[in-house]
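Dear Dr. H.,

I hope your travels went smoothly. While you were away I took the liberty of generating a structure for the chain from your last submission, since the lab meeting agenda had it listed for discussion. I wanted you to have the full record in hand beforehand rather than looking at slides cold. The sequence, exactly as received, is reproduced here:
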Amino acid sequence: AVVSTQSTGGEWHDVPSLLGSILMMSGSLMHELTDGQLPPLRHRVIDIKRDRFSLPFFLNPSFHSDISKTWTSGKETETGRSFKTFGPWQVTQLHRDEPLLLNSTSLF
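The corresponding predicted structure, in token form, is as follows:
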């Protein structure tokens, strides 16, 4: 598989696979929590019919972490208008992105 990232202009660019390298990407929540210091990166994975190994790792705050304010300035986040803590936000995102992964009682 090949990882491609989307530029702010909308163009897709393949990320070269370099032996011994690590690709780190942040999402929209991290963008909000850092007052825009870490930009979100839209990406896609394309199957190239060749063996390639990757190990995704998701670093998340604890379920009860406050996401209603930024870490740097303490301003209210856009996400914080709907979710005070990380857990319910994450469950909502997983339901949206992976509807078969969770069931209706995932918050309980």
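Two observations you may find useful: The chain is about 15% helix and 10% strand. The radius of gyration is 16 Å.

With kind regards,
E. W.
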